[in-house]
Amino acid sequence: MKEINFKSLIITLVVGVAIWFIPVPDGVKPNAWHLLAIFVATIVGIISKAATMGTMAIIGITLCALTQVLAPGDPTKSILNALSGFGNSTIWLIGLAFFIARGFIKTGLGTRIAYSFIKIFGKSPLGLAYGLNTADLILAPAIPSNTARAGGVIFPIMKSIAVNMGSIPEKAETHRKIGAFLTLSSYNANMITSVMFLTATASNPMAQKFAKDLGVTITWGSWAIAALVPGLVCFLLVPIFLYKVFPPELKETKEAPAIAAKQLKEMGPITIKEWLMVATFIILLVLWIFGNLFSIDATTGALIGLCILLLCGVLTWEDVKSEKGAWDTIVWFSSLVMMGSFLNSLGFIGWFGHLVGGQMAHLSWQLAFPVIILVYSYCHYMFASATAQVAAMYSVFLAVGIAVGVPGTMLAIFLGACASLMGSLTHYGHGPAPIFFGSTYVDLKDWWKQGFFMSVLFLLIWFLVGGLWWKVIGLW
């Protein structure tokens, strides 16, 4: 019973029942409105931590089947519809990428990459930051859990380096030596790398799926191209920005390359399994980028990659079975995508989009665009994950933007990016946040203060640099 917060669960139930019994607005089907009640209650339960995300997802699926909101009067079709999310290829793409990511951690390749960059760039705090962040960037396309990427590879190395440089978590007076700077740099870089590739965090494919439901098609390649320039500018500027506004006391870290070299020596020469992991990673990138030329979609490409790792012995079936994060994601992802998709197919998203869009009809799309982005972005204060925000708000905001004439692909990718970029705002704003905040190097006041500054920097870059880039590539 430790996983259940009964106070939050009661609040969740009250919210769901209240929406269910509100008179159905004109233009909305009764079953669409009742599905909304279940969907909102599920999201409230996730945000308030009434139960684990998986538990809330299963409750949501069960209620959809039990109330027959997806197929009134047909219990067989209702349960099939409720379980339809498990047949979604986007969901399995993320699950498969989790399995593949296990190879980076199991073989030690991810750690080797991180230490290699520290060895090269680590003579200064800025060099250390760029070394850690570059390792994150390289791992991002194939590790869809930025929590696993940050917590399993980057954070342990970052903390070890900080401690060796004199920043001791238990001694608050040492935090600003270098620990606080590296904490914020590594965390915010993780937010940036999470939006640069479709497969870098779980919320991106969810956004892709909801966008497709509204007639906007996004591929792995089109997402990467659109995010490339604003993402790289953010990647390059964030350590410099933090170095100016939140500087470390240490200005040189000459010992860091030696520490990295020692760790690499202890790891020994690169193994055959690591080389196989590298080869598989390259094959995956080729399939994801150029798969359309061979009629191979992204999920099939991921299946090919997993098969290679299993046949070569890099992974075993026991590794696949024990990858709890993947199976957990498949379950809750299926539930949220299923409900979001049916809200759209039953007409609710379109109805709400036109309703709100009508209120903004007097605005040109050039004015409506920043309003939509800003409201969506700073709503992230209410969310503990990008996935929860995408599930709750993405389709509605995208529908509103399309209704007032905002170019669909540009808005779809920007909204998808904002859900992760705004993880910078709070110490709970994204999966890796509690890990980095838990180091105690950055106190709550500084985290929120620097997080707000970072959000402004991100939005300025994506509006200005991103806007110019998107004009060049024809998104508007």
TrEMBL record:
Q: Which cellular compartments is it found in? A: Membrane
Keywords, in A-Z order: Membrane, Transmembrane, Transmembrane helix
InterPro entries (alphabetical): CitT-rel (IPR030676), SLC13A/DASS (IPR001898)
Q: How does it sit in the membrane?
A: Multi-pass membrane protein
Q: Membrane-spanning regions, if any?
A: 7-25, 31-48, 55-73, 79-101, 178-200, 220-243, 275-294, 300-317, 329-351, 363-384, 396-422, 451-470
Q: Which family does it belong to?
A: Belongs to the SLC13A/DASS transporter (TC 2.A.47) family. DIT1 subfamily.
Question: Which NCBIfam families does this UniProt record tie to the protein?
Answer: dass (TIGR00785)
Name of protein: Anion permease
